[in-house]
């Protein structure tokens, strides 16, 4: 994918989670719809280069005592289609999860129910979660079945290592050295700008009608940021 294709989908307004109780039902629907639209556009771009999107995000509750609350974002990385078409990637992901005690919900009904109910359990807000998705739900992806893994972050799983998704992806791609984002950092800002420009040019034909003003060269497109590595994120 031109420019690497690793991007962040970031809500413009501050929100720690797509399930934030501070969001009105209208705002929550709009935010989730825009996220889905960007994922679909990215999926189309990646498909043109024989790749599929692998995305993940972490949502945290306001007022939680066990963690600081940040600004939620969805990381999206193109993965070669032939690498995930056989389904072995699921074994890698689940196996790496079991090594650290993560138990995922991966059945569609369970995942759908969690997000449709707003992450609520009775009257208690249970909005802390990790969501990883390969492909895009509702899209034909050839031999790749769209699959979502959900990890509800409570109890023994409340503390989540934010580097774990990257480490697991590096293992899946058989590039263990890239588990450290510093290895992926470009040597100069000029290189970063050039790759960002390459990606924007490639993405433009797929971005029609998605997000905000695509003609504004001084800001990222509709809350989307090109990514060449991940900020140094501490584990929770």
Automatic annotation (TrEMBL):
Annotated GO CC locations: post-mRNA release spliceosomal complex
Single GO MF annotation: RNA lariat debranching enzyme activator activity
Region (Disordered): 203-236
GO biological process, one term: mRNA splicing, via spliceosome
Occurrences of domain Cwf19-like C-terminal (ranges): 5-84
Bias (Basic and acidic residues): 225-236
Bias (Acidic residues) ranges: 212-224
Ranges where the Cwf19-like protein C-terminal domain occurs: 149-206
InterPro entries on file: Cwf19-like, Cwf19-like_C_dom-1, Cwf19-like_C_dom-2, HIT-like_sf
One Pfam family this sequence matches: CwfJ_C_1
Name of the protein: HIT domain-containing protein
Species annotation: Tilletia caries (wheat bunt fungus)
């Amino acid at each position: 994918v031109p420019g690497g294709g690793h991007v962040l989908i970031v809500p413009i307004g501050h929100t720690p989670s797509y399930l934030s109780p501070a969001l009105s039902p209208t705002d929550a629907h709009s935010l989730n719809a825009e996220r889905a639209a960007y994922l679909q556009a990215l999926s189309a771009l990646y498909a043109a280069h024989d790749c599929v999107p692998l995305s993940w995000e972490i949502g945290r509750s306001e007022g939680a005592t066990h963690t600081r609350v940040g600004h939620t974002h969805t990381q999206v990385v193109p993965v070669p289609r032939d690498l995930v078409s056989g389904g072995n990637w699921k074994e890698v992901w689940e196996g790496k999860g079991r090594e650290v005690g993560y138990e995922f919900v991966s059945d569609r009904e369970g995942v759908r129910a969690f997000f449709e109910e707003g992450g609520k359990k009775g009257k208690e807000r249970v909005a802390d979660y990790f969501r990883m998705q390969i492909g895009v739900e509702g899209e034909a992806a050839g031999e790749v079945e769209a699959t979502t893994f959900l990890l509800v972050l409570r109890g023994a799983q409340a503390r989540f290592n934010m580097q774990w998704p990257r480490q697991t992806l590096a293992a899946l791609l058989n590039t263990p050295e890239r588990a450290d984002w510093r290895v992926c950092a470009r040597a100069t800002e000029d290189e970063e700008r050039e790759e960002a420009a390459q990606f924007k040019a490639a993405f433009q034909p797929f971005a029609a009608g998605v997000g905000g003003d695509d003609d504004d060269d001084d800001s990222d497109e509709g809350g989307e940021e090109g990514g060449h590595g991940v900020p140094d994120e501490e584990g929770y």
